[in-house]
Design brief:
This protein is α+β, with helices and mostly antiparallel strands. The strands form five sheets. The protein has an eight-stranded antiparallel beta sheet. Strands 4-5-9-7-8 form a five-stranded antiparallel beta sheet. Bound molecules: flavin-adenine dinucleotide. The site of flavin-adenine dinucleotide has 31 residues, from strand 2, helix 3 and strand 9.
């Protein structure tokens, strides 16, 4: 258990940091990290959600200044109707700007746009000594905060460059790929597409191993919309029409039910369809249409496994999919994406190459051993796991996967010599 303290003024946060007990303090946004990154058992969690104001807007450039507790959902509701979109969106709108920087999140456009923090012009950081510093990308400490998992301090405010759009719709090309080779070949020209991601059937075997549905798109111009939508092309008011019920039994998602779902999902996709107009929610955030979607995993819960391997190490991706398929690991949500180059963030996850992410029921027998074996293969080719999704890596593994960790620790120690900022993840991984 942690003591959750709603954050109000800068002064109150300075006071909370200066009076931190032995289990320390940690900033939290919307708590959408899959593992223990936003938990601080026995200590204080600073709930930033009340700090959600838009402080300044430059209508000419789209640069906004916001408090870090504001959600991407709010930003989209406020700014899409004005013709601006967030520079990077994850698979849910329910994340905050502080969480987006703390995990240095990526989206379907990483190969062209990089991570969220690459669009931050400056940020205000409350350090472990109670000082408030304004950092820009010229400061190395700025990059220690990118993916720094809240351990370099509390991000109070950020100045972020939004992206201009003409409509609240995307034009989407969909393509079914018979197997992993077909998918990798199709993704070779990803650079020509603004957004790209593939859903992978991780239960398919043999010739069909890695069969997938690739979707790629870009924001639609107003004149590409059907006439009815052209009247108000930037209207954006997403709803959450469904709620997953409570009490779903843990075994509902098993290799049989998921294999049936995957078969239907694959068959439902068109062999090829170009320029379909889709809403922002359909294209970017389908899970946001179902409140409490995580309940479908039952009380056993879920775990997300996400790794990245460098370009040229596609065989490790194949090996992961093969291992999941043979073990019958029931995942209906597995995605493959091509990343662009890494940024300067010491603990930032993305690197040029391929990232595979899948949600799996945590109760699958033998899962821990299977993932440990896959981690070894990922590490052997210079790849790594994503801290924002992690609940099971070891200190040794993370040290080997993130070679800039010692430099990050030096920078963290300069601004937080007493390790006021702590989390369950930091204690588990000895960060
Ligand atoms: C359905 C779903 C889809 C997702 N899709 C993607 C995806 O496509 N790409 C991707 O990269 N991630 C994805 N994620 C993960 C998610 O984007 C990250 O975990 C993100 O950090 C969550 O933001 P949050 O506001 O909930 O942060 P939290 O989970 O509350 O915190 C995350 C980390 O940031 C730190 N932090 C939060 N606020 C601050 C602050 N103000 N100052 C300093 N540190 C802070 C916390 O201490 C913690 O270490 C997804 C998650 C879900 C549930």
């Amino acid at each position: 258990m942690a003591k959750v303290v709603p954050a109000s003024s800068d002064e109150q946060l300075v006071e909370a940091v200066q009076s931190a007990g032995t289990r320390g303090v940690l900033a939290r946004g919307l708590g959408r990290s899959y593992g223990d990154a936003a938990q601080n058992a026995g200590g204080v969690v600073l709930d930033l959600l009340g700090r959600d104001r838009v402080l300044a807007v430059d209508e000419a450039t789209g640069v906004i200044e916001v408090e870090a507790g504001i959600s991407l959902d709010r930003l989209m509701r406020d700014f899409v109707p004005q013709g601006w979109f967030v520079p990077v969106t994850p698979g849910t709108r329910a994340v905050t700007v502080g969480g987006a920087i703390g995990s240095d999140i990526h989206g379907k456009n990483h190969h062209r746009a990089g991570t969220w923090t690459q669009h931050v012009r400056s940020l205000d950081l409350l350090t472990g000594t109670g000082e408030i510093r304004t950092l820009t990308p010229d400061d190395e400490l700025f990059w220690a905060c990118a993916g720094g998992m809240g351990l370099t301090g509390v991000i109070l405010r950020a100045r972020v460059a939004l992206t201009p759009i003409e409509s609240a719709f995307c034009t989407v090309d969909t393509q079914r790929c018979a197997n992993l080779d077909g998918l990798l070949e199709a993704m070779a020209d990803d650079d020509d597409h603004e957004f790209s991601v593939a859903w992978v059937d991780c239960l398919a075997k043999g010739e069909a191993l890695g069969r997938s549905v690739l979707t790629r798109g870009r924001f639609a111009r107003r004149d590409e919309l059907p006439e009815k939508k052209q009247a108000d092309p930037l209207a954006f008011n997403p709803r959450t029409p469904f709620t997953a019920p409570r009490g779903i039994p843990t075994g509902l998602l098993n290799k049989y039910s998921v294999a049936a779902f995957n078969e239907a999902w694959f068959r439902k996709a068109p062999a090829r369809r170009d320029e379909e107009i889709q809403s922002i929610t359909t294209f970017f955030h389908p899970l946001d249409a179902v409140a409490d979607w995580n309940r479908i995993y039952g009380s056993g819960g879920l775990l997300q496994y996400q790794v990245v391997v460098p370009e040229g190490a596609e065989d490790v991706i194949r090996s992961c999919i093969d291992a999941f398929s043979h073990a019958g690991v029931a995942s209906f949500l597995a995605v493959l994406k091509r990343f662009g180059p890494a940024n300067r963030g010491h603990l930032s996850f993305p690197m040029g190459g391929w990232t595979l992410a899948l949600d799996v029921p945590a109760s699958v027998a033998g899962l821990a051993d299977l993932l440990d074996r896959l981690d070894e293969q990922v590490l052997a080719v210079g790849g790594r796991g994503y801290l924002a999704k992690d609940s099971r890596m070891t200190p040794e593994l993370v040290r080997a996967m993130y070679p800039a960790l010692p430099r990050w620790q030096e920078l963290r120690d300069e601004v937080d010599p007493n390790h006021v900022f702590q989390s369950d993840l930091a204690r588990r991984l000895k960060l």
